[in-house]
Design goal:
heterodimer, A: 113 residues, 6-stranded mixed β-sheet, B: 115 residues, mainly beta, 4-stranded antiparallel β-sheet, globular
Chain lengths: 113, 115
């Protein structure tokens, strides 16, 4: 079983704060790194798929960076809002042609108004 | 929009019962997956399938089986439910052609309680 680590496990911030969290994954046999957002009572939804070392992706106030050589990705949220409260999951794809993903345990973000 | 539906949002069963969890996707995806999610453990893969009648074990297949008779439907079967199978079960699908780059689309989950 491939080891994908996320930190911190949980995070509480005030509205307007910027925040970031980390996903660590194996640096060998890398194909892609996926980020998902999972809001309570909803389905996990894809945020980004990142494939190239140095990749940066952005969606509104959320952005992500990728370092495949050292095996980590950062997710940043600028000016957090209460609606950003969710669990953020990263998932590593190590080349399975069948599309299998290895998920981290997630970072649970709570944004207080 | 991709839609993945699961037969029940909440289910309560008794120890020893045979339990069927159904998942249907409407995007003609080849790949389908069953996960369970427990607090502090993240999403763990139980089984997946990349074609009709094909199945592959994930990381925690013990106590489970699956069935894929039609492309759009993937069933998870608990042959004899036990209390340690109380969990949230999520189904997902993805396009085989996308391989490791393709997004998985998730259903809303079934929260199963085994008494």
């Amino acid at each position: 079983i491939l080891n994908v680590e996320q930190s911190p496990q949980s995070l509480h911030v005030q509205e307007g704060d910027s925040t970031n969290f980390t996903c660590s994954f194996p640096s060998s046999n890398f194909y892609a790194l996926h980020w998902y957002r999972w809001e309570t009572a909803k389905s996990p939804e894809a945020l980004f798929v990142m494939t190239l070392n140095g990749d940066e992706k952005k969606k509104g106030r959320i952005s992500a960076t990728l370092n495949t050589k050292e095996g980590y990705s950062y997710l940043y949220i600028k000016g957090s809002q209460p609606e950003d409260s969710a669990t953020y999951l990263c998932a590593f794809s190590g080349g399975s042609t069948l599309g299998r993903l290895y998920f981290g345990r997630g970072t649970q973000l709570t944004v207080w108004p | 929009d991709v839609k993945v539906t699961q037969s029940s949002r909440y289910l309560v069963k008794r120890t020893g019962e045979k339990v069927f969890l159904e998942c249907v996707q409407d995007m003609d995806h080849e790949n389908m997956f069953w996960y369970r999610q427990d607090p502090g453990l993240g999403l763990r893969l139980i089984y997946f399938s990349y074609d009709v009648k094909m199945k592959e074990k994930g990381d925690i297949p013990e106590g489970y089986s699956v069935s894929r008779e039609k492309k759009e439907r993937f069933s998870l079967i608990l042959e004899s439910a036990s209390t340690n199978q109380t969990s949230m079960y999520l189904c997902a699908s993805s396009n085989l052609a996308g391989g490791p780059y393709d997004t998985q689309y998730f259903g809303p989950g079934t929260r199963l309680t085994v008494l």
